[in-house]
Structure formats: C-alpha cells, structure tokens
Amino acid sequence: DQQVKQNSPSLSVQEGRISILNCDYTNSMFDYFLWYKKYPAEGPTFLISISSIKDKNEDGRFTVFLNKSAKHLSLHIVPSQPGDSAVYFCAASGLTGANNLFFGTGTRLTVIP
Amino acid sequence: GAVVSQHPSWVICKSGTSVKIECRSLDFQATTMFWYRQFPKQSLMLMATSNEGSKATYEQGVEKDKFLINHASLTLSTLTVTSAHPEDSSFYICSARELGAKNIQYFGAGTRLSVL
C-alpha cells in the first residue's frame, strides 16, 4: 500500500519559470516531510523538509508547502534552472521515534533551457 | 557536512558469489543506517534498518540470510548479498541518520549490482 503518492511521473518546465511538484499522503500519523532530488545512478540528495507544525518552509529557490487537512504537500522551485532537471522524491515519517521514511514514486522534472 | 560514502559504485559478479557493499558516514556519527533497493522506474524500497551494535531489522519479504547487514561502528555499515543470483541485480542505496538529529537521512551514491 503506497502511503506516499506522487501522481505525476514527469513534469517539463521552461527555464526561469516555476516548477511545482506535488505529493499526497494517506497516513495522518506522518508529521515530518522531506523532499529529495536524485540524478540517475546516484543516491538521493536531501533538499528541504517541513514538520507538521508549519505550513511553509523556504530555502533559497525551494519552498515546501504543507496542507495537513488535504494531506498534501508541494515543492516549488523558482526560478527553475536546467540543473534542476532530476527525479524528485517526497518522503514522510514521524518526527521522532519512527525511523522509516516512506517515499513516493518520484516525479521527473525536466527544465528546458 | 553530512556526507555518506558508498562503495563500490558498480559491481559485476558471477551467479553464486557474494558481494559486500560498504556505507560510511564521513563527517558525522550515524546511530542508524538504512539499506534500500531501487528497481527501474520505481521508488526506493526499504530493505532493512540497522542500529550500531545490534541486529538489523528487516522489512517484510526481505531475506535476512541473503542480505547480511553489519553495523559494527557509528560510521560503517555493510550489506553482503550472499549467493547472488541474476534477480538480485539492482541498485542498492544506503542512508544514514545523524545521532540526535531530526529524521533526515543522508544517502550514499548507490551501488549498481549486476549478477551474471
């Protein structure tokens, strides 16, 4: 049972525009959410996270929004750059105690120069 | 900071042989390390969680006798694929969580295993 879902397998965006990647989860016990970026044949790189006490966290060009009532989070990248082209995974877990991260299936972002 | 080194990055072996993959946290102590497997175009599948000095906890469906995990120190965990078969060919990735930190896992670069 996929507890974290990324329903868009791919997304193409023009350079300089905003990229919006979406993620939905089903387990209401999740209270910590992360976004990872992954290039082919490499391990995921941590990008940004948010705890359930917040609804927004910003780090440079990356902003994560959390809507707990909808069990939905999104990653905004603005402005998008060609180097942002990669697969983006969202993940969810408990903030404390629970070790496991539950990953979505990923969204492949292509930023067109 | 928070660098995780995984070695080797690519290994080809004959069926029936064993392969050891190392995962090291280079600049932090990791009480917990994780081993994942990724099939093409799929998400990361957690195989097992290992805590330093204790036995690994395996996810359902993962054979612990086939995938031996050792976490002998706060900076090193190893995964040994024993008697590898072609169906074990996959991309294996380790991650580490820093002692006392939030639940952020830092990942190694992964190991591509090809079993002939």
Oligomer: heterodimer
Strand content of chain A: over 45%
Output the helix-strand order of chain B.
EEEEEEEEEEE
Structural class of chain A: mainly beta
Characterize the main sheet of chain B. 7 strands, mixed
Shape, per Cα inertia axes of chain A:
globular
**Strand content range of chain B:** over 45%
Q: Number of helical segments of chain B? A: 0
Work out the number of β strands of chain B.
11
Rg over C-alpha atoms of chain B, rounded to the nearest angstrom: 13 Å
Mean pLDDT of chain B: 90
Overall mean pLDDT of chain A stands at 92
* Main sheet overview of chain A: 6 strands, mixed
Share of helix of chain B, binned: under 10%
CA radius of gyration of chain A: 13 Å
Spans of chain A of 5+ residues with little confidence (pLDDT < 50)?
A: none
Which two chains share the most extensive interface?
A-B, 23 and 26 residues
Shape of chain B: globular
How would you characterize the overall build of this protein?
- The complex is a heterodimer of chains A (113) and B (116).
- Chain A has 113 residues and is mostly beta strands.
- Chain A is 0% helix and 53% strand.
- In chain A, strands 2, 4, 5, 9, 10 and 11 form a 6-stranded mixed beta sheet that branches.
- In chain A, strand 6 and strand 7 (62-67) form a beta hairpin.
- Chain A is globular.
- Chain B has no helices and 11 strands.
Topology, please?
The complex is a heterodimer of chains A (113) and B (116).
Chain A lengths: L3 E2 L4 E5 L4 E7 L6 E7 L6 E7 L4 E4 L2 E6 L4 E6 L8 E8 L8 E2 L3 E6 L1
Parallel strand pairs in A: 2-11
Antiparallel strand pairs in A: 1-3, 3-8, 4-5, 4-9, 6-7, 7-8, 9-10, 9-11
Chain B lengths: L3 E4 L2 E4 L5 E7 L4 E9 L5 E8 L5 E2 L8 E7 L2 E6 L8 E9 L6 E3 L3 E5 L1
Parallel strand pairs in B: 2-11
Antiparallel strand pairs in B: 1-3, 3-8, 4-5, 4-9, 5-6, 7-8, 9-10, 9-11
Structural features:
heterodimer; A: 113 residues; mainly beta; six-stranded mixed sheet; five-stranded antiparallel sheet; 11 strands; 53% strand; globular; B: 116 residues; seven-stranded mixed sheet; four-stranded antiparallel sheet; 55% strand
